[in-house]
Design brief:
By secondary structure, the chain is α+β, with helices and mostly antiparallel strands. 53% of the residues lie in helices and 18% in strands. It is built from eight helices and seven strands; from the N terminus they run βαββαβββαβααααα. The strands form two sheets. It has a five-stranded mixed β-sheet with strand order 2-3-1-4-7. A hairpin with a 6-residue loop joins strand 5 and strand 6. Helix 1 packs across helix 2.
Length: 214
């Protein structure tokens, strides 16, 4: 069951340093890919304009990858994600193979849906997932559950401070509160308080459960 990812930059035209933002995004993608190398089957790379695309091993891997990326991005930079489940094909081209198929169409549907959702009812929305119509009913049921999780998760991450996101990222990838305190030049107690205030425990536990799923 191929799972693909399409991403674009939130408010890319309003960024004061578009080139610097692009470098920061690519560095973040590389950092997360290094943390969970078994998640990615085709590198997440820039395609055109402010869009990125890649392929992952499973829905759980895609949900984990997108969480870590959002947590690791520097303040003022954010991505919008569309995750698609379906079939993929490679179309030969003189400029390199072109990725197509129902998974990619589903990812495009998902990213359009999350953009519309953020503009209207749920401003914090950043991630959506969709399956191709040809996928079996159990897949569509899984997608509905994942969609509900993403709405709640995006709300928590979007409202976090930059420091809270860094600390939550660190806890997800296994760093201790003492290590994080040293990196932030604060006390371990301050780390604990910041994580608690941000609601990080649910994200970290959710990430660990997802990580065990592939």
């Amino acid at each position: 069951m191929p799972v693909v990812l399409t991403a674009d930059i939130v408010g890319s035209r309003r960024l004061p340093d578009r080139a610097g933002a692009q470098r920061a995004i690519e560095d973040t993608i590389a950092r997360v890919s290094a943390e969970i190398p078994d998640a990615v089957t085709a590198p997440i790379a820039t395609t055109t304009g402010d869009e990125l695309q890649g392929e992952l091993v499973s829905v759980e891997a895609a949900l984990s990858f997108t969480l870590l990326v959002r947590l690791a991005l520097p303040e003022g930079i954010d991505l919008r994600f569309g995750i698609g489940v379906g079939d993929t094909v490679r179309v030969p081209s003189a400029g390199g193979d072109i990725a197509e198929g129902s998974a990619w169409w589903a990812a495009r549907e998902a990213i359009d849906a999350v953009d519309a959702r953020a503009r209207r009812a749920v401003p914090s929305a950043r991630t959506a997932i969709a399956a191709a119509p040809s996928e079996p009913p159990f897949v569509h049921g899984m997608i509905r559950m994942a969609s509900a999780y993403l709405l709640a998760r995006d709300e928590v991450v979007t409202t976090m401070s930059d420091r809270a996101r860094r600390l939550t990222f660190g806890r997800c990838v296994g760093r201790t509160q003492r290590e994080l305190a040293g990196e932030e030049s604060i006390t371990q107690s301050a780390v604990s308080q910041a994580l608690a205030a941000a609601g990080s425990a649910s994200l970290v536990e959710g990430y660990r459960r997802l990580r065990a799923g592939w």
